[in-house]
Amino acid sequence: MVVCIKKPKGKVETDMAGCEWIKESNWITPIFDADDGAVEFVRSFTLDKKAASAVLTVTAIGVYDAYINGKRIGDFILAPGCTAYNKRLQYQTYDITNMLAGENTLAITVGKGWHRSRMSENRGEINKKPCAVIAGLKIAYADGTSKVIRTDESWQARKTGILFNDIWDGETCDATLESFELEPVRIEELDRNILIPQEGEPVREQEVLYPAGLIITPKGEKVLDFGQELTGYVQFCVNAKKGDRVVLSCAEVLDRDGNFYNANYRSAKSRITYICRDGEQAFKPRFTFYGFRYILVDEYPAQVDPDKFRAVAVYSDMKRTGFIRTSDTKLNRLFSNTLWSQRDNFLDIPTDCPQRDERMGWTGDAQVFAKTACYNYDVKRFFGKWLADVRAEQREDGSVPDTVPNFWNISRSSTAWGDVINVIAWRLYRMYGDRGDLEANFDAMKRWVDYMTKDSLDKYLWTCKDDSDKMWRKHYGDWLALDAPSGSYRGSTEDNFIASAFYAYSTALLVKAGKALGKDMSVYEELYKNIAGTFKERFKELKTQTEHVLALYFHLTDDKAGAAASLDKMIKENGNRLQTGFVGTPYLLYALSENGYVDTAYDLLLQEEYPSWLYEVNHGATTIWEHWDGIKEDGSFWSVDMNSYNHYAYGSVMDWLYSVSGGIRPDGAGFDGVIIEPHPTKRIEWLEAEYDSAKGRIVSKWTNTDEGVRYEIQTPVTAKIILNGRERAVGAGRYEFTVKI
Ligand code: BGC
Predict the structure, then answer these.
(1) Quick one: which of 139, 234, 249, 320 is 20 to 30 A from 4 by CA?
(2) DSSP code at position 318
(3) Of 28, 30, 49, 62, nearest to 150 (Cα)?
(4) How far apart are CA 210 and CA 232, in angstroms?
(5) Residue-level pLDDT at 6
(6) Pocket of ligand 1 contains residue 680 by CB under 6 Å
(7) Mutational test site, ligand 1, from 365, 414, 640, max ligand atoms within 8 Å of CB
(8) Backbone angles phi and psi of 423, in degrees to 5
(9) Closest by alpha carbon to 491, among 507, 499, 503, 480?
(10) 478 pocket-lining for ligand 1 (C-beta < 6 Å)
């Protein structure tokens, strides 16, 4: 069994305004080559009078942690976080007044982080920068005088026992190497204009998991099972002799024979090597993270005792706002898997996956999952910061790179990926009601729409010439859909269909955003009408499931009844099974339930045969898989090269549970009002959805009873309650209804 402990939070100040004075400090770098190791920058100083306040601001090229007099400052992990470093680099601010003594030593250790790790090698302007730190410590004395200790040539630097660190590849620490000579530092002319105060949620250690047990595999490997896939690292204790080694590798799954398997991490080594000193000691990595459930204990100088190991979950410090509970344990597990995949992939930026050699801010994945993410957690600040990075990476012509930060220097801009600003900015406004989110993004939304307009071969569509014979096409299509031609990752839905549908959708969102901001949007309203009209003309025949879904959900068909009936028929003929990929899946259940086929939506949701959400649950998933067939019926794997077990995209089904099954959705922007329109099913005894809005907790529960369906609703804001298509009540408070069927 896995026991999760909520770690008590340490104090870290990240919202202190007015710390721009960090820009008056200098970037300093060691005179020696940092290579792959971590470097410690040190400055000692004496205080001859009592400090009334002491504020440290700091950031680095890489990731850092800071200590004063041997005590950790704050609890931010992997500070300064991940941003579009060429334009934006966050600094953090810490109140360290109570940590000062007469004689003080400030030590800031810098690892490679996202900035200098292998993952950003394609982006020389970022990756080739030296290991560097910039900091300022502002001390105000009780007598009104003050002083600032800035990074300059009075600092020194030394190598550390962390001989190797890399986000993808792990960490090597030699604890036998205790004292390194302090050497001078050099002032380096690096950009200071890119420095910005902390914008995102701080990244923290959030939960500690105990191993569920030790497995001796058929091959004789010693593998710790934490019972849950998570992102973070393992900490351990060991009683050792100087020079003994602990070597750990990680995996998400075991192979069909129960042996350790991590080929799906591809080139990411995620290996921890620790060289022990004498005696009892503890270790955890400081400058890497990895997604894992299983830990292979390759080397350990004693009997492997699971009690000496802990897994630490590390993610952005978001407030949980959404809860789904049902009488169906498998559905509950699916919900838990979605929450875990969100936590595991919300480590400062929204990533595709936390384990293989990607961990990239793939825009399409974030776009697809954003609505669910907003119900599960308060992600206003998390996405607000990341959208600023998306805007920073948006190109002159309005195109949006497929990953942000664009560490791989990708020059393409795919439909459904590049729509990320339009989709998420609008979603934030709907959920949190802050016009600021629209104001910040409006221009970028417009530039994206204008880009599509200019880039198209045909007027009022987004079309491109056929590049389907190419491995790397312009668009990703209905990524990983099951109607893909053999050997392809892309489903059968035509790229031009998807691109034109999203062109319409993003234009519609732009119009809504502009109107919410009080702008004249007539030009884009006209554009939208033309796109919708041209689309309906051009794409009369709907072929794939995803084509039906997009036409229905984006209102791009005049024959909704016919399209919905045809989609329903396709699903039934396919044995109540879906075929959709990244593009179609998020809207699949909506396309059905909004058009009279709620039962078919539930058939898909509750399907247990492959392919389905519960198939994964039945096959032991503890997070959401990238592929519907990540593990096949016979226990074999889909593939090695593209097979993550922690990809949140298909977890996007959860927002349907909140907003249709439980029926909680904002009425207008920001839950000033709420529409509660639950859609029960006989196939589940009861379901309860809760959403902790800024205005208070909204609860919607339905239970199947002998008398009919009993609804229990609680709302702090004016609610329009709609049951069985009939409006029942308008108001705030607690309501109970039993509706006979
Ligand atoms: C990622 C995806 C991403 C895709 C683009 C993959 O390698 O893991 O989630 O969206 O590339 O098609």
Answers:
(1) 249
(2) P
(3) 28
(4) 13
(5) 47
(6) no
(7) 365
(8) -70, -50
(9) 480
(10) no
Which residue of 344, 352, 474, 489 sits with most ligand 1 atoms within 8 Å of its CB, as the best mutation to test the pocket?
Answer: 352
Q: What is the DSSP letter of 410?
A: -
252 assigned to active site: no
Question: CA–CA distance from 110 to each of 115, 133, 554 (Å)?
Answer: 11, 7, 48
365 lines ligand 1 (CB under 6 A): yes
Query: For residue 372, how far is its CA from the centre of ligand 1 (angstroms)?
Result: 19
Nearest partner of 582 among 505, 521, 491, judged by Cα: 491
Q: For a pocket test of ligand 1, which of 252, 358, 410 has the largest count of ligand atoms closer than 8 A to its C-beta?
A: 358
Cβ of 645 closer than 6 Å to ligand 1, yes or no, is: no
Structure-token pair, residue 92: 């953090």
- Calculate ∠ Cα 464-474-537, nearest 5°: 35
Interacting residues of 379 by C-beta distance below 8 A, sequence separation 6+: 318, 346, 370, 373
Q: Please report where in the chains the tokens 């060429």 appear, as a residue.
A: 86
pLDDT recorded at residue 16: 53
pLDDT for 472 equals 78
Question: How high is the pLDDT of residue 467?
Answer: 80
Task: Output the six-digit token pair for 183.
Answer: 């050497």
Q: Name the percent of the chain in helix, strand, coil, to the closest 5.
A: 30, 30, 40
Three-state helix/strand/coil letters over 145-204: CEEEEECCCCCEEEECCEEEEECCCEEEEECCCCCCCCEEEEEECCCCCCEEECCCCCEE
In order of 229, 295, 365, 590, 651, the CA distances from 339 in angstroms are 11, 22, 15, 21, 9
Which residue ranges in the chain fall short of pLDDT 50?
Answer: 1-11, 14-15
Where do we find the tokens 């396709």?
570
Between the CA of 201 and the centroid of ligand 1 the distance, in Å, is 25
Q: Is residue 648 lining ligand 1, measured as CB closer than 6 Å?
A: no
Nearest Cα residue to atom 5 of ligand 1: 476
Beta bridge pairs of residue 696: 693
Return the C-alpha torsion angle 524, 440, 415, 563, nearest 10. Answer: -60
Tokens of 366: 């974030």
DSSP 483: T
CA 656 to chain CA centroid, nearest Å: 19
pLDDT score of 86: 96
Q: What angle do CA 653, 659, 665 make, to 5 degrees?
A: 140
Report the b/e string of 582-598 with b at 16+ CB within 10 A. bbbbbbbbbbbbbbebb
Nearest to 39 by CA among 107, 136, 122: 107
- Residue 657 region by backbone torsions, left for phi larger than 0, else alpha for psi between -120 and 50, else beta: alpha
Q: How far is the C-alpha of 709 from the C-alpha of 727, rounded, in Å? A: 16
Q: What is the dihedral angle through the alpha carbons of 591, 595, 597, 601, rounded to the nearest 10 degrees?
A: 20
Q: Which position among 40, 171, 201, 358 bears the catalytic label?
A: 358
Q: Which two tokens stand for residue 402?
A: 């497929």
Residue 626 designated active-site: yes
Q: Which residues pair with 723 in a beta bridge?
A: 726
Cβ contacts of residue 250 below 8 Å, gap of 6+?
234, 262, 265, 270, 290, 291, 292, 294, 295, 296, 355
The CB of 479 under 6 Å from ligand 1? The reply is yes
